[in-house]
Amino acid sequence: MIILLSILKYEIKQFLRRPIWIVLFIVSIIFCIVLPRENFTDIYDLPSMVYFVMCINLLYLFYGAEEARFEQRNYLDEQVRNLPYQNKYRLGKLLYWSLISFTYYLIFFVSILSYYLFYLQVGFALSTFQTTFVYTFFIWFIPFFFSTIIGYILYSLLPNISCYLLIIIVWFLIMPYNSMLGFIPTSLGAWLINGDPNITKVISVYDMEIMKVNRGYYVQRSFMLIILVCLYTLLTFNLKKVGRYSLVLLLLFSLCIPYFSPFVPQINNRQTNSNIGQKNFFTETVLLEKATDYTLNNYIFDINHHYSKHNLSYKVKINVSADNSDIQLALLDDFKVKDIKFNNKNVTYIHQDNIIALSLPELHGEITLTAETETYDAIAPTSYELIATTPWYPMNPKEALNPYKNGNVESYQINLSELSSVTTNLEIANDQKLQGEAYGPTILKGNYKEKDNYLYPYSVEIEEIQINKERVFNEIENINDRLAANLAPSCESVIVTTLYPAFSANPSECYLYKNEDINQSNNIFTNVYLNGGDTSLFEAIFNNVIEHESWQNYLKREYDEETITRITSYYKRLSEEQRTQLIQKWYKEMEGTVSAEQMIQDMEDKYAEG
């Protein structure tokens, strides 16, 4: 210990004798605060400093290389090799680098917090401070330390001027910038990134993952630490053959970590059918009317969030009472069904196009369904949004198509693997259990706030939500006028989502997207007023886009060109009042599921009336 302390003291003295690095480190902190200061409004803006942190990492890469160059230029390597405490010196060097990196990080971190607290006068809770410290520790300090080791190793292997070009190339490949451009596939690149591997996704998509260190980060940092320490030790330590072989084996073992680790650092965004645009839930499957004549109740869930990528699994038991043995359930294809039982006996089923078709041995009993997902976009490593109006769980297809018109109150009992940071429309019974009655369960894990009847993300202001809600209700009023309808969602509770860019509602809850600038008009129309089926012609007429080329091309996939031409021709001849009358007729009688033949006939008749 005394020797290590002496080595640390020696290295610190050497550092102070080279003031250029002190100046560079201080200037880098000043630049990293002064240049982006206009973008600092909240402590959660820290991830946006990614480019400045990348530059600091480049500085540490050069510093590590200069450390190796300094040793070679002064023949320290040969001198140390002849000393009895060579290995302790090399270990002390690692400790010194970690001390330099941590000291720099601490000054940087305190400077940033001071800027927020005293200049911007932005306060934050203790929990926010803890989140910020953990995030910056993993995304700032550890990469600074790793960059020093990488720079030292590279110059030791290539001790000439070309090493600096190699350092820039390596820096480019292992920095978050590579994750933005994707030169290395995400499955591999995320393990090599010396920074935040999800920076683009958390800033643009996953609000709840901002400054969250998922379990994959711990594994990835351990993975890099083992590799770098092994390489450094093989290069600098005086080891016997057994020691070298052991390190090589450890190095090879560590290279296998990405292949068998249950946790990965990246948010693997591979969404397939997670669209909340509910009229697109069922693209090919024909919904049989009698197959939806049943009631579901008494849901009992066991839900496991796997804290990696989009992984989540659950087992659910449901009481069913049907009029027919052949029934259809709605469940997004993202959720792969592993097993379905009826009264504890296996039953055959087909799951495609977001519909489960199965035949019940009896009309009354209990369905037990096990499902898992690796692709549902609303699930992330530390957060998720499971909302009642989307069939992430088995529900009646009619309810999935229009939860506002066809929603039913059911009882729910949900056992979660963890209740930390969970908000729900059910009652929280204990540390792991939710229960209650609702028009479907909504379970949100993340940093949400509640005020009055609003439940919303931390990043959204209540005034923004109220403006968005008012705009939605104005749109509903306009649609009611055009359709001669009187729908009026109560919105007893308003829930703001971060991952569902659409409006949806059931009889007691309204779901708004966080950004009021997103045009939700068509979502309001399809999700609240229509009940599914082929409504493409009706929507084209209602939205006055039947003549648009994009819609013409879309409709030609379903209808022949002559049919589209006839509809367009009659549409042009009709007055605005006549169009409105037909729209109201088609909505009142068919809820928009008007056929091309019926539309042409009605247009002909309306035109003949004058």
TrEMBL record:
Membrane-spanning ranges:
20-36, 48-65, 94-117, 137-157, 164-184, 217-235, 247-264
What are the protein's UniProt keywords? Membrane, Transmembrane, Transmembrane helix
- Write the protein's name: Uncharacterized protein
